[in-house]
TrEMBL record:
It comes from the Bacteria. Pfam families: FMN_red (PF03358). Transmembrane segments: none annotated. Residues 17-155 form the NADPH-dependent FMN reductase-like domain. InterPro entries: Flavoprotein-like_sf, FMN_Rdtase-like_dom. This is Multimeric flavodoxin WrbA. One of its GO terms (molecular function) is oxidoreductase activity.
Length: 206
């Protein structure tokens, strides 16, 4: 007996402070996660948020000129959401914080059975930086994502922190460190597995 796995989609919100076409470590690790997800039959795309006018606020639509509604449509069409952020002063970037604030608007959006529209979607995180902070950042983002309805898989983060007090970035490495490559593969395998389970059987109505 053969089982056909349902197709899955992923969206990466890249929260670098550098607009395109600048090189970005957050973009690089997001692309690596999307590549690892592709090995599990997940198609994906990324949005570099700084390239768009994402208005401040906590609504799903902040009115004229706000680019968030179109990004949100792509998020709602995806099964897996990746938030990829650099580390600044031990924190996620201000762009990542803006994205979390906009996701707060999902708390007012429910389906016909009372569930948030984000229920059944998987949230994962990628963090890069040359100072320690990945654990704190992933913990903060996990809580935000879970608060607005996303489910976090086991091993739901991949990251790289360089040596403190120096300036080498992830994008400047000659090759991806084995430990980071391994956590990226684990993230992709577990996220795809969980997303398929949730796609097959949604959370109960409230």
């Amino acid at each position: 007996m053969t089982t056909t796995k349902p197709p899955l989609r992923a969206l990466a919100l890249v929260c670098t402070l550098s607009p395109s076409p600048s090189e970005s470590s957050s973009q690089l690790i997001a692309d690596q996660v999307l590549g690892a997800l592709a090995e599990h039959g997940v198609t994906g795309e990324s949005v570099r948020l700084v390239d768009h006018d994402v208005k401040p606020g906590v609504l799903t639509d902040m009115g004229e000129g706000d680019d968030w509604p179109s990004i949100r449509e792509r998020m709602l069409a995806a099964d897996i959401l990746l938030v990829s952020t650099p580390t600044w002063m031990g924190q996620a970037s201000s762009v990542a914080q803006r994205a979390m604030e906009r996701l707060d608007g999902e708390l007012s959006e429910k389906d016909d059975e009372g569930r948030l529209l984000t229920y059944g979607k998987v949230g994962v995180v990628a963090v890069v930086g040359n100072e320690d902070g990945a654990h704190k950042i992933s913990a903060d983002l996990y809580q935000c994502l879970n608060d607005v309805g996303f489910t976090i898989p086991a091993g739901g983060v991949t990251y790289w922190n360089g040596e403190a007090m120096q300036g080498k970035d992830y994008k400047d490495l000659d090759e991806t460190p084995e430990a980071t490559a391994g956590t990226t593969k684990t993230l992709a395998a577990n996220a795809a597995h969980l997303a398929r389970l949730l796609k097959a059987e949604q959370y109960p109505a409230t």
